[in-house]
Amino acid sequence: QVQLVESGGGLVQSGGSLRLSCAVSGSIFRLYAMGWYRQAPGKEREFVARIRSTGSKNYADSVKGRFIISRDNDKNTVYLQMNSLKPEATAVYYCTQEYGDYWGQGTQVTVSS
Q: Of 7, 32, 38, 68, which shows the fewest CB atoms inside 10 Å?
């Protein structure tokens, strides 16, 4: 059974940084694209970043140049380095293995102004 567990969320001041991690088990991790999404209160879940098995990456326009997605296939873990955080980044952040549509439980990120 595929399981995804996010960690690293918390409270940070505007302009600060956080690094989210997502540990994956039960999957041949290196074969699949992994993504990060977020859902703010009262809003729909939205795409943040994706990294494919090849290492190629995509970002939402709102985070380009400030967020960095990476993966460690030896540790079955995907990361999201978030820099220059803004209050509008406050949301629950979810990681997903796109093949099979598996999702983690989410981790809360709160950016204070």
A: 7
